[in-house]
User: Fold this.
Amino acid sequence: MPSPSPSSPSSPPSPAKVLVTGFEPFDGETVNPSWLAVRSLAEAPPAGVDLATAELSCVFGTAIEDLRAAVEATSPDLVLCVGQAGGRHGLTVERVAVNVDDARIPDNAGRQPVDEPVVEGGPAAYFASLPLKACVAAAREAGVPAAVSQTAGTFVCNHVFYGLAHLIATERPALRGGFVHVPYVPEQVVDRAAPSMSVRDIATGLSAIVTAALTTTTDLRVTGGATH
Ligand code: PCA
Assistant:
């Protein structure tokens, strides 16, 4: 006689726990598209996902503490951190976090580190633990422009991405995580020549990326490289 299926209708598979973070506004902006889109995503989470969200400070050090507190509070299977990258044309899934804080502008607490490590004695860099190519393909299939990015910069977003990767490497080996940079929203560029994307489209792309990250076992072998 067959043994009862563990996923019989009376015991549906438990949903994946996903933490998605955005940032508070910085650099004189009044909104941050990352947090607008994360809030929008929370209103219609992807199927089969138990979604938690957190807004991170745009402050070196504090941002990683915010992230760690959110991870401890929610014990997620996957963490996707999201930040604004004004000037980019689409969603960019970051490949690598580097162990450098080098701030071109002060953060929201006036801190402006120059060539300091994110983690003293940590490795030079970490790769995202996401299927990058499948994430990009999923966003594109949802109709949202997306690409792999080879650098998350050296400001607070890279800092948080490195902090997340270090947490995974040193304390939470079962956790997977990565970082997505998003363009400005239209209200930020009404008086300047810069690309933008609606909150709704950003949220649609993020939803596709979360689903791809949860369901892909082997990443696609397609190019996402850059010549410069
Ligand atoms: N973008 C900044 C920090 C916060 C954000 O949304 C960055 O790219 O570093």
Summary: Residues 16-215 form a domain with the Aminopeptidase fold (CATH 3.40.630.20).
